[in-house]
Amino acid sequence: MKRIFEVTSSDIMNMTGRELIETIRLSEGRTVMAETIVTFPTPIYGVSNPELAAAFGADLITLNFFDFKSPFIFGIDDLDVNISKGFGEIEALAEKALKNSNDPNYIKKLKEITGRIIGVNVEPVPDDVQYVEGRKLNRENLEKVRFYGFDYIMITGNPNTGVSVETIVNGIEMARSLLGDDMIIIAGKMHGAGSGNIYDPQLLEKFVKAGADCILIPAPGTVPGIDLSVAKRMIDVVHDAGALALSAIGTSQEGSQKSVIENIALQSKMAGSDIQHIGDAGFTSGIATPENIMALSIAIRGVRHTYRRMAYSIKK
Question: Residue limits of the DUF7916 domain (predicted)?
Fold first, then answer.
């Protein structure tokens, strides 16, 4: 079996969830995930944020703010629309999103464009929190996960959503029941999300027992109180429970200087992280500073495997 930075686009199109998990294990802490917001205009015209993340070395790309009711990705779906022509062009964008919602190959096309493994955030927000329906973790949206062909889901919470341990556990159980055994479920919190951080490693074990394949924790140095020793204790519990561990940069430090990213990356690797995530808030354009995606990759696997990953964007 290949390591993650060796897989090509044809491998990705045919890989099962269980095979992907073993590929990540085999890669020994050298897997890079980039999160991108798909509803923001992109920093480079004509290039979507997922494409940009792929070009700078990400293996896995997580779509944030993806609306299951009106799917739309800037940099792909807006290229034939000229807003200067008037409000009719805005209606054209809405029509495109409606058309996308009925396209079972929508995410498959994105995978073909990027040559990457594609996942999506689904958020288990409490019932009393007002939030966009198309982004919530519920039965209807989970059924769309399979319809569109996502490779994995990430159950977590954006800022001020009130996502808690309880809503995450309930979300994992619902997702596993509806999506079956082969769907990869990543779950956890990279910041408080309006209801506090998770510091008790034993709570992470509950996520594994509920059915999660990979547990998400804040990377060392990204939230108060999470240093190398705390992160290692949390990851040891996750590994002992049989799951993968993901360390996340989700506090806008993805827009910091390169040295910060390199430091976080090395500490995360020392802590035992299997997947290193970098967030979507560089210049508030829905993606990390692209050079920082590459810096993270180089820090944990060197230029050889980073450049290989960058060059394998569309290689069959």
Answer: 6-315
- Closest to 153 measured CA to CA, from 163, 143, 164: 143
Cα–Cα distance measured from residue 298 to residue 9, given in angstroms and rounded to the nearest whole number: 21
Q: What is the pLDDT of residues 72-94, one digit of tens each?
A: 999 999 887 766 666 667 788 88
How many residues are recorded in the chain? 316
The structure's pTM equals: 0.94
Q: What is the pLDDT of residues 78-136, one digit of tens each?
A: 887 766 666 667 788 888 888 999 999 999 999 999 999 999 999 999 888 888 999 99
Q: What does the alpha-carbon distance between residue 44 and residue 79 come to, in Å, rounded to a whole number? A: 12
- In this structure, the number of other CB atoms found within 10 A of the CB of residue 237 comes to 19
* Of the candidates 127, 132, 121, the residue with the CA atom closest to the CA atom of residue 188: 121
- Whole-number Å distance between alpha carbons of 50 and 19: 23
Alpha-carbon span 174 to 164, nearest angstrom: 15
